[in-house]
Specification:
The protein is mostly helical. It has a domain of about 30 residues. It has three helices and no strands. Helix 1 packs across helix 2 and helix 1 packs antiparallel against helix 3. The longest helix is centred in the first third of the chain and has 27 residues.
Length: about 70
């Protein structure tokens, strides 16, 4: 794959992870985080799931920041 294709694949993976987090929070907590703060999203996912799952979201959000 070309560098452009790898970058696009990473962007899609990050978007999918964020969407999954929103779905989990929506189902378990009854809401999804609308805040721009990544730490708010990670905290909500920790409440809805567990520390391990939240750790993976944090890694995806850090990758998103690195891609920008």
């Amino acid at each position: 794959m070309s560098p452009h294709e790898w970058k696009h694949a990473a962007e899609v993976a990050v978007s999918a992870g964020i969407a999954a987090s929103d779905a989990i929070c929506g189902h378990v907590l009854g809401y999804k985080v609308a805040s721009e703060s990544h730490s708010d999203a990670v905290a909500a996912l920790r409440l809805a799931s567990n520390d391990d799952t939240a750790k993976h979201l944090r890694a995806l959000l850090e990758a998103k920041s690195a891609q920008s």
